[in-house]
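Hi there,

I know you've been waiting on this one. I reran it after we fixed the sequence typo, so this is the corrected version. Both the input and the resulting structure follow.
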Amino acid sequence: MALAEAPSTVKLSSILSGLSYALDLTEGHPRGHASRSCLIGMRIGRALGLSADDQSNLFYALLLKDAGCSSNSARVFQLFGGDDQTAKRGAWMRDWRKIREQIAYVIDYAEPEGKLFERLRRLAVLAAKGPASRRTLFEVRCDRGAEIARTLGFSKATAEAIRSMDEHWDGGGYPDGTKRHDIPILARIIGLAQVAEIFASEEGPDKAATVAKQRRGSWFDPDLVDLFLDLSKDQSMWDACGSQNLEDTVADAEPQDSVITADGKRLDDIAEAFAWVIDAKSPYTYHHSQRVADFAVAIAHALGLDANAVTRLRRAALLHDIGKLSVPNRILDKPGKLTTREWEVVKLHPYYTYQILERVPVFGELAFDASAHHERMDGRGYFRNLPGDLLSPSARILAAADQLDALSAERPYRGKLPTEKVLSIMREERGNGLWPDAVDVVERVLDSSNAAT
């Protein structure tokens, strides 16, 4: 069976549950946060008596709730310094509606490793920007998440639930300050489920129940809290959250009358959508994954790869940097030379690409090639240090396409290089670093690309 066609038995939920690990990384959550939130939210939805359609809409909104998470990563770093993932998760651990909690949060996460004057400067900037900066962070993330859901063909109700999931019952949430029953019911469920999961993972179900009660009537719909408190006494919900086969457990929680399978077109759409998530992480990687995919496809066509191989390569190219969501923006966007420790963090991103993709149905077959984009023909690449004869033609093409775009695009430490300089560097890498066959067609590929623009 060609990879271009997904088996009709593969559930879309299994794919999205696996890929949600990338979203967990971006938000600083332990692996499985989105999946566990989905299990909790679906218990609430069923207990509430939602219709089959609403349960289906809720199910996919829970899995995709953090689809816009990378779009505010650079802004979080610019505001707070330090690791954006740590600051993001910390926002849920405190009731930032209370002034004391706001102060404690800022003290904990503003330039945490900086010198005293750096921390004071950061505190002053945050105080000056005030609530408007918080609103922007939520608005960017929620709008982007809703856009991705719509692009993937999900319902208006699913997109609206994602956009409104950070609204609070009393109107103190974001992005619009909507209150009470004006907040979509699916969004109210997501807001409660995700916070409950965070505290249950940190300190256990009892803590999740305590926090739900503390935020009842402010953050959360009181009726939903009361329902959750009853559900939290059922050990089977927490056993499901602790499942060793979490993706399968989540797939089983999908309303059976509304199961969506993943055909080839939907796989392409998912790869495109997650490429947007990846590239939104940093202003310096904007459209990087799409450009790498375009270069890889052009090189593959020039070398005569068949249609199925090209389809497979394109998806791998779109997802090759999904592990980069694990890298803090303080490293990704650093204008100067990286320290040894920072460089080691960067070198792990292909490892995370493999870890994310290898557990995802269908995309698991792309995991090795996608994670090999920094390997070299002489075996001095990373993260596996594999020589070229152990790399597939697709992996070799992807490595060349990735370097081609990296040299052609602007980076925080340098400007965009002219075409002749790009070609000169790639020719120097021919044989030792890059596959000669791929390098030999790069000039033709660049000429076609430049002519198209």
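Quick highlight: The mean pLDDT is 90.

Best,
R. S.
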